[in-house]
Write a structure and sequence with these properties.
single chain; 113 residues; mainly alpha; two-stranded antiparallel sheet; 3 helices; elongated
Length: 113
């Protein structure tokens, strides 16, 4: 049974969870912060209950914990082993009309980003 002798997050996953929380809070304007909001909202709602320490009340937070652990592992691996190759940039050619002179070279490429 959870809560008696075991924690909700296993001890070796706690550093990944903390990294996930830091990365989610660091990029708070992206959708990656949603699991953090989910976890904080569940914790705040459970704190208002009479028996707030019962672990069954935190079942709604398990997916958010898993997402934050995965975010921490993924971002840590991305920092430790960066990509050695860059994905090819989407490019398109700039076309000019024959009647209008252009100051652009013939093979000028516009990068879309």
């Amino acid at each position: 049974m959870w809560g008696l002798s075991m924690a909700l997050v296993l001890p070796y996953a706690v550093p990944a969870l903390l990294l996930g929380v830091v990365f989610a809070a660091w990029r708070w304007r992206t959708p990656g912060v949603l699991p953090l909001i989910w976890l904080l909202g569940t914790s705040a709602g459970n704190a208002l209950l009479v028996e707030s320490a019962v672990t069954a009340r935190y079942v709604a937070a398990f997916p958010a914990l898993a997402l934050l652990i995965a975010l921490g592992i993924g971002e840590a691996l991305a920092l430790l082993w960066p990509r050695r190759w860059q994905p090819p940039a989407r490019t398109c050619r700039v076309h000019r009309r024959r009647s209008q002179p252009s100051r652009l070279p013939r093979n000028w490429v516009v990068r879309l980003r």
